[in-house]
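Retry 2 of 3 after timeout on previous attempt. Resubmitting C-alpha cells to design endpoint.
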C-alpha cells in the first residue's frame, strides 16, 4: 500500500511502531529510523545503490533489524509542488519497496537536504563529514516531518 496522505498511512499502521525513512538518490539511499512512539528520527546507514534486487535485500535486512511497521519515502517535488522526473523515479522506487509488505508513505522532501546541511554546519562538521552523512541526515529530516504529521493527525 502506497499513500500520499498521512491519515491513510496512519490507518494502515499499528498504534506506534518503528518507521524507516528513505532519501532515495541515484547513487545512494539515506536511511533513518524513528522510535516506536514517533517522537524523534535518527539518521542510520547509507546504502550505496546497486541493482534494485540488491537494494531491496539490504532494505529488507534493515526492516527486520528494527521490527519496522512502515516506510516513509522522500518525494522530490519541484518548488512549485509539481512533479519532476525524480518524483516519478521515487514513486517507482516506492512501488518496488511496497513489495516488502509494509505501508509506504510518500512525503514531500523539498529542502530536506538544505535543512540537514544547515544543521550539520551549525554542529561544525567538516565538509568531508557532511558529505558522508548528508543523505541519512536528509532521511531523518524527511522522517521527522512525517512523524510530526502523524502525531498531529491523531
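Retry 2 succeeded. Sequence:
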Amino acid at each position: 500500500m502506497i499513500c500520499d496522505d498521512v491519515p491513510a498511512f496512519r490507518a494502515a499502521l499499528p498504534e506506534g511502531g518503528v518507521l524507516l525513512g528513505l532519501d532515495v538518490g541515484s547513487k545512494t539511499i539515506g536511511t533513518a529510523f524513528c522510535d516506536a512512539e514517533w517522537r524523534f528520527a535518527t539518521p542510520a546507514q547509507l546504502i550505496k545503490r546497486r541493482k534494485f534486487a540488491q537494494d531491496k535485500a539490504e532494505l529488507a535486512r534493515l526492516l527486520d533489524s528494527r521490527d519496522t511497521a512502515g516506510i516513509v519515502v522522500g518525494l522530490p517535488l519541484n518548488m512549485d509542488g509539481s512533479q519532476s522526473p525524480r518524483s516519478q523515479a521515487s514513486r517507482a522506487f516506492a512501488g518496488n519497496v511496497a513489495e516488502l509488505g509494509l505501508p509506504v508513505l510518500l512525503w514531500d522532501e523539498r529542502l530536506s537536504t538544505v535543512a540537514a546541511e544547515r544543521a550539520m554546519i551549525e554542529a561544525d562538521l567538516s565538509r568531508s563529514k557532511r558529505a558522508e552523512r548528508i543523505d541519512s541526515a536528509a532521511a531523518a529530516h524527511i522522517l521527522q516531518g512525517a512523524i510530526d504529521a502523524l502525531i498531529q493527525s491523531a
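Attempt log closed. The chain has one domain: 2-72+84-152.
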